[in-house]
Design a protein that fits this description.
globular; two-stranded antiparallel sheet; alpha+beta
Amino acid sequence: MHKLFSQMGTIRKSPTLKYGIQQLLHCRLGNAAAVVFAIMGLASLTLLSACGNKPSSNLKTETDVTTIETDKQSTTPNTETEVIIKETNYFPAIDRYLVDVVGKLYAEGEHCVPIHPIVTVDERNGEDILVWGDFWVFNYNQVGDTLKCVSGGNHPGLMHIRQTENGFEVTGFDQVEDGSRYLPSAKKIFGKKYNTFHTINSDAEARERLRAEGLAVYAKKHNLSVTMYQDYGWQAKKLPSVHL
């Protein structure tokens, strides 16, 4: 029952995704009562009307920079430096998938800023890292100093991620279904972690805070001259101060 919304407030259903998405958050929750949001970037299942609910992500990307010097010719002292950016965690891969795959299911905006509160992670297999999360996408247009949300929605589920030579990539996405299939599919995907997911998904205040922080990080990293963000039909809100 992940709801989709447009600027005109129309609610639409998204197709179920069964394939393979700074910015951020990673937490291990040991019991159903634990609710921890890790901060993207740029970062649940109640109805949204034109981004009009009070949903939330701080998406932060960490990278390592490796410098490799190679002699072009053994007869010359000149060297050429190649800079390889290596991802140190899988959150950028999640962001890419949410933006490039899920975000394109919605009305297009100038900026797509996802959030992904994480329920739990299984990293034992580098070829199939399992990330259970409450994934969201929000599309915005900049109008003056305000980022106005034009579309977005919620896509909770399980992402399969593979570690590559220089980073990570999403290889599959088991997504909670819509309508009458929502509850049974959510319980099947999250299993013993369902109660933890439900607690996270139900906390609109924490989600909205996470969303605002992630949006502020995104705006700063992309040098956007904005101070506010706004959902259709709601008053604009001030973006929080962040330090990169």
